[in-house]
Amino acid sequence: MAERLVKYSRAQQKDVQDERSYDAQCPYCSMQCKMRVIEQKGPSRTQYKTIALDNPTSEGRLCVKGIHAYQHAVHRERVKQPLFKVDGQFVPVSWEFALAVMKEKFTKIQEEFGTDAVSVYGGGSLTNEEAYLLGKFARVALKTKYIDYNGRFCMSAAASAANQAFGIDRGLTNRLDEIEQTDCIILAGTNIAECQPTIMPYFERAKENGTKIIVIDPRVTETSKMADWHIQLKPGTDAALANGLLKLIIEHGYIDEAFLSERTTGFDEVMDHVQSMEIESISTLTDVSVEQLEKVALTFGKAERAMIFTARGVEQQTDGYMAVRNFLNLLLATGSIGKLGCGYGAITGQGNGQGGREHGQKADQLPGYRSIENKEHRQYIADVWGVNEEDLPRKGVSAYEMMEKIHEGEIKAMFIMGSNPIVSNPNATYVKEALEKLSFIVAVDMFISESGKLADLILPTTSYLEDEGTMTNVEGRVMLRPASKEKPGETKHDWEILCEVAGVLGKEKYFAFHSAEQIFDELRVASRGGIADYYGITYERLREGDGIFWPCPTTNHSGTERLFEEKFYHQDKKAKLMAVSNTPAKKKESTSLEFPLYLTTGRVVAHYLTGVQTRRSSSLAARDIESHIQIHPETADKYGIEEGRLVKIRSERGEIVVRSRFSTDVRFDTVFVPFHWAESQNINDLISNELDPTCRMPGFKIAAVHITMVT
Ligand code: SF4
Question: For residue 659, is pLDDT > 70?
Fold first, then answer.
């Protein structure tokens, strides 16, 4: 691993009495950029520097979030001792006390209300080992069916679509460097320039090579600025847009008939479906001209090699699953998959959005992407864990639906690890009310988050500089994150906490782990023969190289860099196309006299998810200290909004107040608000509780709102 960018002034070197360095990976997005953090201790202060480290994915780059990530890890507000709430105030307690409280509370609640009364809520930033162990903890230590995680809001639409179409769900079907070797790229609903900035050079180099780039996004973004064509469609009409492109591609004869007949099923149904549509009606529905649809369809259809990437803009809709399926129809119809420079990518948002969804944190899932409702899968995992198959709980419900189960009285307690559900769920006030109803909440976190404030017990965990483990990046490459910084105070790694809690619940023999590597070795066996097969990946191999792509079934296997060269992963080895309606069965929220504008939400470059870490980083907070509403100046004028003033945004669910920021980058009928802030700036207070019927993804990307200036 080569070192890049060592930059110190002579003045900075002065007065350094002790210097240590810690190799790590950025704790934020799925690029998992490699870095070294240098700690320099002097007589009066300790200062930190971040150096980017070379590796095949991030190629020695870091974005502003990664450079400043250490600021939260060394922040004075880190929780360093267990905290127990007494009379509404947190007081420090010992681990022995904390463990005894959990034993007493969990046991009592489960004796009175049944094992499912205690629920588990995980996160997509946990290491593979910790995500795996959390799933095992829920099923074996607590014996509850109620476990889900915040990745439900991130990857569920793309994951379900890829599983149904291809029989496997891996974020990218190819290595990132194939991007430079394609002729046409569609980027649908993804603002990579702000969300995964170090991925951008792949697309920039592609452009230099003559690749045509098409960006589909209602907003002008830093990403759309590099596009040859920017389709600024009406929010929520992605599925219809893909139907329009499919129709034109078929009409112009750009389908790959040989590929379709040999390697897919379902095309005839799709063809009949799109041929029955009028292109003019799709144009009206999407607010994209027929001429633009033609240009894009012809560019994509003519390309010898083509790729499609989707992200939350398409996926965080109540028809996100269907919309992604339709983009996959486009790829399959043109035979643009399973070959060099041809493939699909779901750009993962969270650091371990990929690995975190493969090994058992999801309500319906067992490790290796096995199904909790499949008898053979259950038996295999029961044997690995040394438990009876009949004792494994069945499928639970999705993250938001767990909140409904609390309101219904079925869930009485929650164990939260690495997540802040009050801020990340839709209909946030309802979610807060749900947590307030619980009789016992444990939050495992580095800070007292907004959800942590409602907890009875906070367990202090370690940061990315302290906690070693594997993460699976956006490519599907499993990487070992080294972490050698000493644990501060009485913090413990997530996996240590899970082992200790399981121990006091009498399940120590199933959780007798002493290192992350030991857990990974069990995960390898648990995943063996499953769709996400990690068996051939070992720490030893990871220490020696640049990561290994799954599936990797044997220790001699070099990993699978490009999927689908020979087969898809359904039993008949074929991919499945499926006809997709222009409009979802259940109508999406639309504007009205009372709520005349569309609201859409997303990220800004300086912040990550609910902001618990990045809002505590002074350098990142300085860039965006508060939330804002991005609004077109003409729309602002119509509603009497002045630049830089506080604006009340109201939907049927609630209202928040944020500052106005004028921009012609947003459509006249749409406003944009980022989702990294909490409480009176929590935009998810305004989002509806409607879920995608297939993958249970909430419709974060659309709400109808009303705005007024606060006078
Ligand atoms: Fe890399 Fe993503 Fe971290 Fe930026 S946020 S440094 S792109 S991993």
Answer: yes
